[in-house]
Amino acid sequence: MFPESPKIPALTEAESQVIDAYLATLKRLSELNPTQVTGTYTALRAAQALVAETRALRDALSLMFERQQTEIHVRTMAKALESLDAHRFLARLQPPRLPGR
């Protein structure tokens, strides 16, 4: 048996696109952290992909606005991000703790 994972809240299509694009952006940023990546080619590829991911995020937010969804429901979005394990990328965004500091 698998443990029950948190349920993803009901989102509009545009909100779902924002969440997906935001997670993709976080993933790319986590791949760019110079304290986490060991090769410049890997970082370069992530930086190139980041441009596309941020465009997708911009487009998803524009779609929300065009559909008169002018408010972002923070608690709902936070619950969706938690359900989709957004925290797995957040740890890679920070520089590692150096010994003795």
From N to C, what is the helix and strand string? HHHH
Structural category: mainly alpha
How can the largest sheet be summarized? none
Shape: globular
Q: State the helical fraction.
A: 55-70%
Q: Residue-averaged pLDDT, rounded?
A: 88
Low-confidence regions: none
Please describe what this structure looks like.
Helix content is 63%, strand content 0%. It is built from four helices and no strands. It has helices at residues 13-32, 40-66, 74-83, 87-93. Helix 1 (13-32) runs antiparallel to helix 2 (40-66) and helix 1 (13-32) runs parallel beside helix 4 (87-93). The longest helix is centred in the middle third of the chain and has 27 residues, at 40-66. The radius of gyration is 16 Å and the shape is globular.
Concise overview:
The chain is mostly helical. The protein has helices at residues 13-32, 40-66, 74-83, 87-93.
List keywords for this structure.
single chain; 101 residues; mainly alpha; 4 helices; globular
Would you spell out the secondary-structure blueprint of this structure?
Blueprint: H1 13-32, H2 40-66, H3 74-83, H4 87-93
